[in-house]
Design brief:
Blueprint (H helix, E strand, L loop, with lengths): L17 E2 L13 H20 L8 E2 L1 H12 L17 E8 L4 H9 L14 H6 L5 E13 L2 E11 L8 H4 L6
Parallel strand pairs: 1-3, 2-4
Antiparallel strand pairs: 3-5, 4-5
The protein binds 2-acetamido-2-deoxy-beta-D-glucopyranose.
């Protein structure tokens, strides 16, 4: 089964976690529910595209199927990968991160890109960064849930982003991860 599914974004329990303890207050409180959704959607897209543009990757479009699946996974508050179980066998890429305190969308996506320093094109590894900039992954859906007791008794904002077509396909890094920018 695994052989037919590309390697998903690699994640370990420590990877991408930040803990800066502070109260999580309501945000966007002056906006309507629809405005909040649109704003968040655009922030997820912008946070990816503003990195992708430096890696010769096209801008992404929002996919509600992915966003709904990301939401259902985030709502479980299991801080671990869904391992390809969300879309009835359709493969997808996935990045997850949880952070306590004020941990907004741009903060979360920025965590994914920290892996860039680890990337060596002559010996490609597959991580959050490579999924963010993967050229062939052009559709995005993300969600966030505030989960209790993630860091001890401290709650965290748990972000799940799903990518389609999936990135981090072993053997395809050289044509999908461009590191020559800037
Ligand atoms: C959105 O994502 C789903 C799941 O990966 C995929 O099946 C569907 O084709 C995508 N929608 C569009 C418009 O491409």
């Amino acid at each position: 089964m695994l052989s037919s599914v590309p390697i998903l974004a690699i994640f370990t329990a420590v990877c991408g976690f930040v803990s800066n303890v502070a109260a999580v207050g309501p945000r966007h409180q002056l906006l309507s529910r629809n405005d909040v959704f649109n704003t968040d959607e655009q922030t997820y897209l912008w946070s990816h595209d503003s990195v992708r543009v430096f890696h010769d990757a096209p801008g992404m479009i929002w996919n509600k199927t992915l966003a709904d699946a990301a939401s259902s996974w985030a709502n479980n508050c299991q801080i671990q990968h869904s391992d390809g179980t969300l879309l009835g066998g359709t493969p997808y890429g996935e990045n997850i991160v949880a952070g306590s305190g004020v941990f907004g969308i741009a903060d979360a996506i920025a965590q994914f890109t920290l892996d860039e320093a680890d990337y060596d094109p002559s010996s490609p590894t597959y991580n959050h960064f490579t999924q963010v900039v993967w050229k062939a992954s052009t559709q995005l859906g993300c969600a966030v849930t505030e989960c209790p007791n993630v860091f001890g008794d401290v709650p965290a904002n748990y972000y799940v982003c799903l990518y389609y077509p999936p990135g981090n396909v072993v053997g395809e890094a050289s044509s999908n991860v461009f590191v020559g920018g800037l």
